[in-house]
Each structure stands twice: as structure tokens, then as C-alpha cells.
Amino acid sequence: MQRLFIGVPLPDNYHQQIAELRREWGRRLDGVKVTWTKPGNGHVTLVFLGDVEEARLDDVQAALEQVSFAPFTLQAGAGGLFPPQGMPRVLWAGLAQGADACAQLARQVRASLKRSDENKPYNPHITLARIRALPKSFMTSAQNPLPEILQALHAQAWPAFT
Predict the structure, then answer these.
(1) With bands split at pLDDT 50, 70 and 90, how would you rate the model's confidence at 118?
(2) How far apart are CA 58 and CA 56, in angstroms?
(3) Stretch (H or E) spanning 128
């Protein structure tokens, strides 16, 4: 059994930028248990499949071969935290360009796989880090680094790619 998703891979320059953000922000997140996206693993998820049995992989591949789409441009932009209220668990970058095309492609992929979750809201994003534990004092103190990190994320210049 494999844990799988269908996604749009990121170009090398995005992986380099994420690594730079990790180095810079890692110091600001001292005391926070964070798991950063591994170098080379950054992507925009279209559909999360979860655990898939080996015997179903050919069916998944055949379904995906039926999906047709024209190339489109993506560009990361401002991001945020999931969930947006309460204790954050994910630090992410959104899409300044290409969100509608990703959503359309995600719908096509879901339809080809005959997924029952087609009507779930879709929020295309790039997961930068998972926050495993954040001291509760951070949420109510001036020491909380997250507002500063989000401000830096909003100012981050991401190149467009096809």
C-alpha cells in the first residue's frame, strides 16, 4: 500500500527559495516544533488519494491518462496558516496566478478517478511547513514569530512557471 496524491511539481528555483526560507525562518521559529517540506518535495496538491493498494495503481494511472488540459502558468503568492483560527498546523504559500486553472484540473482529476469528494472546497497551495507543536504562550505574546513570518511571505517574490 502506498500513500499517494496527484499534484503539480514545483521547479527547482522554487525548491531553492523554500530552502532559503527554511534557513531564514528556522531561526525565528526557535522553540517551535516544525517539520519543513523536504527539498524536492514541494508541490501543489490536486487530489489527495490516501492509501492506495498496489493492485489499484494501474486503474489510477489509466484514469489519469484520460485527463486532458492545456499548459497553464502558476506563480506562488501570499500565504497563511491552516487552520486560519486557533492553533496553526500548516504554513503555506498560496497562488497569485493559476489558482483557477489548478481548481479546474483538480475537478477533472477527481472526475476521472470517480472521487466522491468532488464538491469539497479546493484551496490550491504549497505547503512550506507543518507546525507540530507551538508553545501556547506564542499565541498570546509579542514573541510569536508567525505574524512576522506571514508578512515576509506576503513580500516574497516568486517567479511564474508553466
Answers:
(1) low
(2) 6
(3) strand 126-133
**Range name among 45-54, 83-92, 109-118, 120-129 with the lowest pLDDT average:** 109-118
Alpha-carbon gap, residue 4 to 2, rounded angstroms = 6
Angstrom distance (rounded) from CA 22 to CA 25: 5
- The reply to whether the predicted model has a pTM over 0.85 is yes
From CA 35, how far away is CA 41, in angstroms rounded? 13
Contact 22, 36 (CB under 8 A): yes
Q: Smallest Cα–Cα separation from 33: which of 92, 93, 87?
A: 87
- With cell 489548478, the residue in question is 102
Residue 125 has pLDDT above 90, yes or no: yes
Region of 74 please: left (phi>0), alpha (psi -120 to 50) or beta. Answer: beta
Residues recorded for the chain: 162
> Among 88, 155, 98, which Cα is nearest to 124's?
98
149 grid coordinates: 513570518
> Locate cell 506571514: which residue?
150
